[in-house]
Amino acid sequence: HVYTGIDKTVKRAVPAKIIRQIRDMDLSHDSSLEYARDLFMFSFYTRGMSFIDMAYLKKSNLQNGFLSYRRKKTNQQLVIKWEKPMQEIIDKYDTIGSSYLLPIILDAKTDERKQYKNAAQLVNSKLKKLGKQIGLPIPLTSHAWASIARSKNIPLATISEAMGHDSESTTRIYLASLDTSVVDKANSIILNTL
C-alpha cells in the first residue's frame, strides 16, 4: 500500500495586499503575536531571509547602511541595503547588552541553538494563528518576497541572487506553482484569439 507516484505540491503566493494587511495589523494586545509578525516582516524586508540567518545576525553585520551576512545554509555572502522598515523593527526591541541584532538569541552564555529552535517554534506557531485570524488558506513563509517579486516580473536571476540561492533551479523549485495567474492570463489571451 505504498504510493510511488509524484504529486505536484500545490503552493499559492501570498499577495502584496495580504503582506500590507499583516504589516498594518494592531497586535499590541498580544506581544508574542506582534513579535512573530515583526520577524516575518523583517524576513520579508530582507528579501526572504531565513529564520536561522536572522537569529544569528550580529550588530556588526550592519555597517554603513548595508546588512552583510553569510547564509548558514550555503555560506554565500549576501549584502542588503538597509531600509527604513528594517530599522523600525530593530528600534522596537531592546537588544542592549547583546551582540545580536534581533531579540531571538537572548543569552549568548547559554545554548544559542536551543534558543533559536525555541524561538522558531514559537514564531511558526504564532504565524499560523495570525494566518487563521486573517483567513489565509496557506502558511506564511519566507518565500513571500520571492513570489511577489516574480509577480512583478522581476527576472528569475535577480530573485535567485537576492535570496542567495546557489542556482536559478533552486529558485524555480521555490517558485513552482506559486502563482499560475500569469499563465492563466496568457491562456485567456490565446483562447480569445480563436
Poorly predicted runs of 5 or more residues: none
Strand arrangement in the largest pleated sheet: 1-2-3
Strand proportion, as a percent range, falls in: 5-15%
How many distinct helices?
A: 9
Largest sheet: number of strands, sense, barrel closure: 3 strands, antiparallel
Measured distance between first and last alpha carbons? 46 Å
Determine the mean pLDDT: 84
Helix percentage: 40-55%
Record field, number of beta strands: 3
Based on CA atoms alone, the radius of gyration comes out at 19 Å
What is the molecular shape?
A: globular
Helix and strand pattern? HHHEEEHHHHHH
Structural class: mainly alpha
Q: In words, what does this structure look like?
A:
The protein is mostly helical. Helix content is 49%, strand content 6%. The chain contains nine helices and three strands. It has helices spanning 16-24, 31-45, 51-55, 84-92, 112-133, 144-151, 156-163, 168-175, 181-192, and strands at residues 62-63, 66-70, 77-81. It has a three-stranded antiparallel β-sheet with strand order 1-2-3, with no helix packed on it. A hairpin with a 2-residue loop joins strand 1 and strand 2 (66-70). Helix 2 (31-45) crosses helix 5 (112-133) and helix 7 (156-163) packs across helix 8. The longest helix has 22 residues, at 112-133. It is globular, with a radius of gyration of 19 Å. The termini are far apart.
Write a short abstract of this structure:
This protein is mainly alpha-helical and 194 residues long. The chain is built from 9 helices and 3 strands; from the N terminus they run H-H-H-E-E-E-H-H-H-H-H-H.
